[in-house]
Design goal:
Structural class: alpha/beta
Number of helices: 24
Helix content: 40-55%
CATH architecture of the largest domain: Alpha-Beta Barrel
Bound molecules: 2'-deoxyguanosine-5'-triphosphate, calcium ion, zinc ion
Number of strands: 17
Length: 581
């Protein structure tokens, strides 16, 4: 069983325990290592087997200490130091810190004062009014905790797309290697690129279901087998449920269409079929116009399609559409009318306008980020380190003077590397919509991203619109500030925001960080319809994060975006024009 996600979770728990005890710096290096291990495409056991501890150290951010803990875990099934930390603070760290506003230090304080160990304990303590009496807490904090518990409970059941997709890629590679498999694809929410995933659905076309299911059950990377039958099986891998269905190859297209969903899309498709005298289900499309009782069985009537998904839609006089569109947002009518959007692809993206360097909280130099972007295939980047201001803690952000110096450095790097490097900033949007950088510095910068980093609840429409209308702001970054499974972010009247963005020529960002995916796709669609421009940025804090652009691109596709709707599909001169340079 591959354990990358499992190990990543342990490293995060380690970091939480260190944080709870007020240890400096170390928690962050554990968190970075956790991210890298989770995103690493090769399984740690495989690395270990090939090159021992040294090979594990080749994972970005994994040094001696962490590599030896990973090896210890692979050998013994535990990390002794973590076990000791857990003994000192025996709480369900993961569940408790899932509550917005509850960090490791809060967990420790509440454990010490009230013996809170679980989410249930936390809820009971808050309901009983015990938390407000703990030193450092108040009635307001207690109320916030109580309000945030249901969201935390719900979100723990769903995985992030960014966690599920790499797992699905491994699952697909496994099935592709089997002789008995004729076709394989993911289905469900994963194929539609939803930001969070309940389970991973996999569909195989094969004449030998037994062989496929047997192989799946004994796959060395699989964890426990949840259930197994003659055409279905479910296993757990990296804390996720993987649902396999095996169908005969002639029915693969119909099954893929059905199990891709969404449910609402399928209902709309089925209704259209009924109007045409057809019946569509997971087995095929059937002409039932001559049949007395179309519900007499699953395969009643004359079979007119089912081998391919294109065939299924074609039988219904619809163009095939990308899975990202299948959310019942008008795609069925658009497909019937031949008016589907020509969705952008990852290859259309030519640069990244929001990323960080070691000048703020990024990991490396301007030059290294530029070189990595060039290797990735980008034509340009804009460095957008944090400015000081609301939401920036621990001295992370740059002052106006430091920004001025940095502009000089960026110009110098721009002269030496192969791509264009714009001088940007990520300013903070204050509660009143103000931007946390001096006007003269803003005017000197090429590209100003302004993002909300504090006060991320309640209605944020006025605040965001004010930032959009600021003449120096080019892009509003992660406009709601949501963190998937962690906090819902600002409420926005998206029509107003979209109109303001279109009028002021300010781009709205889809932040491609898999924890954010903000703007969300339904808002993207509204923004585009209003004529606003979208920017898709990774918010990279390290070179490897440029890869995340695909999550942003697929979010844009879910919002019906074409290449022309997106700022950074333009070439460098096109971007200059947008920025007024
Ligand atoms: P998830 O797993 O919660 O992220 O969401 P999905 O969309 O992957 O849902 P899942 O795994 O329950 O089912 C996969 C697909 O199968 C779903 O998108 C549509 C199809 N499906 C499942 N149950 C039904 C149903 O009762 N009616 C229809 N029309 N389709 C269904
Ligand atoms: Ca699913
Ligand atoms: Ca499923
Ligand atoms: Zn950022």
């Amino acid at each position: 069983m591959s354990r990358n996600a499992e190990i990543a979770a342990l490293l995060e728990e380690f970091a939480d325990h260190l944080d709870a005890r007020d240890v400096d710096y170390k928690p962050n290096s554990y968190r970075r290592a956790a991210d890298s291990v989770r995103g690493h495409t090769v399984a740690v056991e495989a690395l270990r087997e090939e090159g021992g501890e040294e090979a594990i150290k080749e994972i970005e951010d994994v040094g001696d200490a962490i590599a030896s803990k990973i090896v210890e875990y692979l050998d013994t099934g535990e990390i002794e130091e973590l076990e000791e930390l857990r003994e000192g603070l025996p709480v369900e760290m993961d569940a408790l810190t899932a509550v917005e506003g509850v960090g490791p230090k809060t967990v420790k304080a509440l454990y010490d004062a009230l013996g809170v160990e679980t989410l249930e304990d936390l809820e009971a303590a808050a309901e009983a009014g015990e938390i407000q009496d703990v030193k450092g807490f108040g009635a307001k904090t207690e109320e916030n905790i109580l309000e945030a518990i249901p969201f935390a409970r719900e979100s723990r059941a769903r995985s992030l797309l960014g966690e599920a997709r790499p797992v699905a890629d491994r699952v697909l590679a496994f099935f592709e290697s089997l002789d008995a498999v004729e076709r394989v694809d993911v289905a469900g929410s994963l194929r539609r690129w939803r930001p969070t995933i309940g389970d991973i659905d996999v569909l195989v076309g094969s004449g030998d279901a037994d062989a496929v299911i047997e192989a799946f059950e004994s796959w060395e990377e699989a964890g426990t087998v949840i259930e197994a039958g003659t055409s279905k099986a479910s296993v757990r891998k990296n804390d996720m449920r993987v649902d396999l269905r095996v169908v005969v190859d002639e029915e693969f297209g119909a099954a893929l269409q059905y199990f891709t969903g969404s449910k609402d899309h399928n209902v709309a498709v089925r209704n259209r079929a009924i109007d045409m005298g057809l019946k569509v289900n997971e087995y095929g499309v059937f002409d039932v116009s001559e049949v007395d009782d179309p519900d007499a069985g699953q395969r009643v009537g004359e079979r007119v399609a089912g081998e391919t998904e294109e065939g299924v839609y074609d039988a219904l006089d619809m163009a095939w559409m990308a899975p990202e569109l299948r959310e019942n947002r008008g795609e069925v009518d658009a497909a019937a009318a031949g008016e589907l959007p020509d969705l952008l692809t990852t290859d259309d993206v030519r640069g990244d306008l929001h990323l960080h360097t070691e000048h703020s909280d990024g990991e490396t130099t301007i030059e290294a980020m530029a070189d990595a972007a060039a290797d990735f295939g980008h034509d340009y980047i804009s460095v957008a380190d944090h400015a000081t201001g609301p939401g920036m803690v621990g001295g992370v952000g740059l002052t106006d003077e430091e920004l001025r110096d940095q502009i000089g450095e960026i110009r110098a790097v721009d002269d030496t590397v192969d791509i264009d490097v714009f001088a940007g900033v990520e300013a903070n949007i204050g509660a009143d919509g103000s931007v946390s950088v001096g006007e003269d510095v803003l005017a000197e910068l090429d590209c100003v991203v302004a993002s909300p980093h504090s006060g991320l609840d309640g209605d944020g429409t006025d605040r965001i619109v004010t930032a959009i209308e600021h003449p120096e702001v080019d892009i509003v970054g992660h406009p709601t500030g949501r963190l998937l499974n962690q906090r819902p972010g600002l409420d926005l009247d998206i029509e107003r925001v979209a109109d303001a963005a279109a009028d002021s020529g300010t781009a709205l960002e889809i932040n491609a960080d898999p924890h954010r995916l903000d703007l969300r796709s339904s808002n993207v669609k509204v923004a585009i319809e209003a004529g606003a421009t979208i920017a898709i940025d990774t918010d990279a804090h390290r070179p490897g994060a440029y890869d995340s652009i695909r999550y942003g691109v697929h979010t844009a596709r879910r919002g019906w975006a074409e290449a022309d709707d997106v700022l950074n599909t333009r070439d460098a001169d096109g971007v200059r024009e947008f920025l007024g340079l």
